[in-house]
Amino acid sequence: MTRFTHKLSDKIKVSEFTDNTVTDALLQGALVTPAFVYDLNRIQQQLELLSGLSRRTGCRPIYSIKSQPCEAILELVGETLHGVSVSSLYEARWARERLGASASLNLTTPGLRADEA
């Protein structure tokens, strides 16, 4: 399954297509470009590898929001990994709203108080 995240007027729309229908979707206008395209199956495979690593070693993998601040990916990551890495107050609040208080929030930035996140 390939998932597309694209902007539709003022809202973000997430569409899913099988690999065989991606070209058809583009040709028929079902996918608004520009779009960020990612392979849902590949992301899930990688998350399963990280989850297995965590079980075997006790490490706690986290996701860097700065690498890809896509809410759909954050939802997948939030179900598997132990938390996120953020570098700003905005990212910290955004992650906390979506993942809840139980997720680990790793902040790397100067001058931010704990009560601001």
Query: In percent, how much strand structure appears in the residues?
Result: 15-25%
In which order are the strands of the major sheet placed? 2-1-3
Characterize the biggest β-sheet: 3 strands, antiparallel
SSE run? EEHEHEHEHE
In helices, the fraction of residues equals: 25-40%
* Head-to-tail CA distance between termini: 35 Å
| Number of alpha- plus pi-helical segments | 4
Quick gist of this model?
The protein is of the alpha/beta class and 117 residues long. It has helices spanning 22-27, 40-57, 71-80, 89-99, and strands at 2-8, 11-17, 35-39, 63-64, 83-86, 104-107. It has a 3-stranded antiparallel sheet. A 3-stranded parallel sheet has the order 4-5-6, with helices on one face.
Which key terms come to mind for this protein?
three-stranded antiparallel sheet; alpha/beta; 4 helices; 6 strands; single chain
Describe this structure in words.
The chain has helices spanning 22-27, 40-57, 71-80, 89-99, and strands spanning 2-8, 11-17, 35-39, 63-64, 83-86, 104-107. Helices cover 38% and strands 25% of the residues. A hairpin with a 2-residue loop joins β1 and β2 (11-17). It is α/β, with parallel strands linked by helices and 117 residues long. A 3-stranded antiparallel β-sheet has the order 2-1-3. A 3-stranded parallel β-sheet has the order 4-5-6, with helices on one face.
